[in-house]
Amino acid sequence: MVPDVAAPFQIKEGELIMDADRMVLNAYDASAVEEALVLKEKHGGEVEVVCIGPAKASETIRKALAMGADKGIHISTSGDEGFDSASYASILSSFFGDKEFDILSLGKQSQDTDSGLTGSMVAEKLNLPYATNAVGLEIEGNNLVVKRQGDSGQEMIELPTPCAVTCSNDMNEPRIPNLKGIMASKRKPIDVVELSSLGISEEDLSPASKVISYEQKPARQAGKKFEGEADEIAREVAQLLDTEANVI
Amino acid sequence: MSQNNLSFELNEDQKMIRDSVKDFVERHVAPSVMERDNSKEFPMEIVKQLGEMGMLGIYHSEQYGGSGFDTLSFCLAIEEIARWDASLALTVASHTSLGTGHIAIAGNHEQKVKYMPELCSGEKLGAWCLTEPGSGSDASGMKTTAVKEGDHWVLNGSKIFITQGSVGDTYVVLAKTDPEKDTKGISGFIVEGSWEGVKSGPGMHKLGMNSSDTTEVIFENVKVPAENLLGEEGMGFIDTMKVLDGGRVGIAALSVGIARGALEESLKYSQERKQFGKPIGDNQYIEGKLVDMATEIDAARLLVWRAATLKDQGKPYTTEASMAKLFASELSVRAALEAVQIHGGYGYTKEYHVERFLRDSKLMTIGEGTSEVQRLIIARELKKTLS
Question: B163: which DSSP letter?
Answer without folding.
Answer: E
